[in-house]
Design goal:
Length: 274
């Protein structure tokens, strides 16, 4: 085979390889790769290929796929009635670690803490409670642990109450067997206030005399004013404003409140200028 023939063969092989490479699976993947698009929840005609805020209203852009089938927020109605709230996509809620909790019936407890010592006569842990004497009753549960730590936590109950001046002396059935070297203890008296419709305390935002929570309905985060009753250590009773099964924001509610007020202010100013 002469040099001219060899050159032609090499060019032919190279051409075949080049032709096959153009249609390789990897290239097809590159050609069919979908470009992510972002859209404004209120102004659906604004579409961007990058994350950011809408230049018209300032709302955070969301993924186009996440709002398919959801009607856009009406701008005029939002200005007149901002109760439409904020829209966050699942990915945005995850980024700011929003946590939701359902309104449910919970046991509400109040914990009264005081210092306890070992009674030299009875060898039982006892102590004085000041200012909240009307809540203390015999039979109530008590947790005790030394000042130096909470391991282990001992549990017992109140067996005797001796009234004093704006105070009560409380004796428990707990005998000091674990903490031989401890002289002082923390006593937590558990006041059972009953079972009520309630939400976690951290869901409530205090605004003067008004209490507000944020509920989640189909991706819309809405502020609601509530009326509360008993406030416990972990849960607060709901008298009005929420129903069992509704979801409220616990962790992240202050962020939502700031964003809601900011967007509401922007939209009202924009509406006034028009």
């Amino acid at each position: 085979m002469n040099n001219k023939t060899k050159s032609l063969v090499i060019l032919l092989v190279f051409g075949i390889l080049l032709f096959m490479g153009c249609f390789s699976p990897d290239n097809n993947k590159l050609k069919t790769h979908r470009v992510e698009k972002y859209i404004c929840p209120m102004h659906r005609d604004y579409v961007s290929e990058t994350k950011g805020n809408c230049p018209i209203c300032g709302m955070a852009l969301v993924e186009l796929e996440s709002v398919r089938g959801i009607p856009p927020i009406d701008f005029e109605e939002f200005c007149r009635n901002p109760s439409q709230g904020l829209y966050l996509s699942p990915s945005q809620a995850k980024e700011i670690t929003l946590t939701l909790s359902k309104v449910s019936v919970e046991k509400i407890e109040r914990w009264i803490r005081t210092t306890g010592t070992v009674n030299p006569t009875s060898k039982r842990v006892s102590g004085w409670v000041y200012g909240k004497t009307r809540l203390i009753q015999t039979g109530q549960k008590v947790r005790i642990f030394p000042l130096i730590g909470r391991d282990p936590v001992l549990q017992g109950k109140i067996i005797r109450i001796v009234p004093g001046e704006n105070s009560v002396f409380v004796e428990t059935d707990l005998i000091d067997r674990w903490y031989k070297t401890s002289k002082y203890y923390i006593m937590e008296i558990i006041i059972d206030l009953g079972h009520y419709i309630a939400i976690p305390n951290e869901a409530i935002i205090e605004e003067g005399k008004k209490r507000v929570v944020y509920t989640c309905e189909q991706g819309q985060y809405l502020p609601k004013t509530i009326t509360i009753g008993h406030r416990g250590e972990l849960y607060t009773q709901i008298i009005d404003g929420l129903k069992v099964g509704e979801e409220v924001v616990t962790f992240g509610s202050f962020f939502l409140d700031a964003e809601y007020k900011l967007h509401n202010k922007r939209n009202l100013l924009s509406h006034t200028k028009e």
